[in-house]
């Protein structure tokens, strides 16, 4: 019997513990006339090994929620935790280390460096941190992302969907506890969008990661295990095992309520 050179990464089953948790989380920007309550005492958990979508109107606080929970922005009140770590208890160095080791972030713009190859982009954050990537994990990520034949291409030689998959692979490379993706398919056509969404879902199902994704698209939200709805800085609703139809239905109900209230 011949053994595979790289043992398969075990399939993880979702557990009940939270990968990230917000408790009474509030975020206020500005003062006086320009004061905006972007988040108003939000409490929620992102279950480990789950794929959660966040939806809500423009300006409702979705990006702010992700930034506060990923330690990219400070909170005004309440708490944000990654695993068991309370972010406000960390000093700048500890926070930088936590962000580097435990959190991946994917933005709407791919933010790849044009002069580096796909593989160099994927491993750049680890190179900056002076850390050697776990080769078995990296192979698994690159295999899952479906870019094995494209690793030596530069971003300009890749389609939008491929570039965003490189960005997702980069977010996964350090094997973070949780990946936050803010409208990762916002700049993509529907086919490239499906590629990226499929990969995010595989990151959860096959690689055991936790993914939180902001989207405006009911079809994209349907890739998630759960959708939470945000309006005016508050959680308003959630759907488990969403379909594009059930998400669209819920959005129509909000619109109807908005018109009558
Ligand atoms: N740095 C900032 N300074 C001041 N106000 C801000 C800042 N960032 C966000 N806001 C305000 O906070 C509120 C929530 O913004 P946020 O970016 O979280 O919305 P969003 O739900 O992500 O919207 P979109 O769907 O358009 O991306 C908005 O009223 C916005 O104007
Ligand atoms: Mg936003």
| Arithmetic mean of pLDDT | 89
CATH topology heading: Rossmann fold
Major pleated sheet: 6 strands, mixed
Stretches where pLDDT is under 50 for at least 5 consecutive residues are 1-15
Calculate the terminal CA-CA distance, rounded to whole Å. 69 Å
Helix-strand pattern, N to C? EEEHEEHEHHHEHEHEEH
* Helix run count: 8
Helix/strand-derived category reads alpha/beta
Question: Considering DSSP H and I runs of 4 or more, what fraction of the residues is helical?
Answer: 25-40%
Supply the number of structural domains. 1
Q: How many beta-strand segments?
A: 10
CATH superfamily: P-loop containing nucleotide triphosphate hydrolases
* Overall morphology: globular
């Amino acid at each position: 019997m011949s053994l595979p050179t790289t043992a398969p990464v075990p399939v993880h089953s979702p557990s009940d513990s939270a990968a990230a948790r917000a408790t009474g989380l509030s975020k206020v920007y500005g003062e006086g006339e320009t004061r905006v309550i972007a988040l108003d005492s939000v409490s929620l958990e992102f279950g480990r090994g789950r794929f959660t979508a966040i939806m809500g109107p423009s300006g409702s606080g979705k990006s702010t929620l992700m930034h506060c929970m990923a330690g990219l922005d400070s909170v005004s009140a309440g708490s944000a935790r990654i695993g068991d770590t309370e972010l406000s208890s960390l000093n700048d160095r500890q926070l930088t280390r936590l962000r580097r080791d435990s959190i991946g972030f994917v933005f709407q713009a791919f933010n790849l460096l044009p002069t580096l190859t796909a593989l160099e982009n994927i491993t750049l954050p680890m190179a900056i941190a002076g850390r050697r990537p776990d080769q078995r994990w990296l192979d698994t990520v690159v295999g899952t992302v479906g870019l094995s034949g494209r690793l030596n291409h530069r971003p300009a030689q890749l389609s939008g969907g491929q570039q965003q998959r490189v960005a997702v692979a980069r977010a996964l490379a350090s094997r973070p506890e949780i990946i936050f993706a803010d409208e990762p398919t916002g700049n993509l056509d529907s086919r490239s969008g499906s590629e990226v969404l499929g990969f995010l879902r595989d990151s959860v199902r096959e690689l055991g990661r936790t993914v939180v994704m902001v989207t405006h698209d009911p079809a994209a939200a349907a890739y998630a295990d759960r959708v939470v709805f945000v309006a005016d800085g508050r959680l308003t609703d959630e759907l488990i095992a969403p379909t594009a139809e059930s998400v669209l239905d819920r959005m129509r109900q909000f619109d109807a309520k908005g018109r009558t209230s």
